[in-house]
Amino acid sequence: MFGLFKKDPLKKLEKEYSQLLEDAMALQRGGDIRGYAAKSAEAEAVMDKIIALRDGAPKA
Questions:
Q1: Under 8 Å CB-to-CB from 60, ≥6 apart: which residues?
Q2: Is 14 contained in some domain?
Q3: pTM (2 decimals)?
């Protein structure tokens, strides 16, 4: 009952991952390959967190 209004951390990470990919795409289109690589690395780190969170979640 008290967990009703808690934010889902998985949903937040997925949104952050999506935003990082969009930012990386914009950098790549602008010709900033180093910026693209940095954003892609950030996105990959977030995806690792998402995978870890999914694997650690109890199965229903």
A1: none
A2: yes
A3: 0.81
Q: From CA 27, how far away is CA 41, in angstroms rounded? A: 13
Q: Is residue 60 one of the residues assigned to a domain?
A: no
Residue 17 belongs to domain spanning: 9-55
pLDDT single digits (tens) 5-59:
778 889 999 999 999 999 999 999 999 999 999 999 999 999 999 999 999 866 5
With a CB cutoff of 8 Å and minimum separation 6, the contacts of 46 are 13, 16, 17, 20
Number of domains in the chain: 1
Distance (Å, rounded) from C-alpha 25 to C-alpha 29? 6
CB atoms under 10 Å from CB of 49, counted, come to: 14
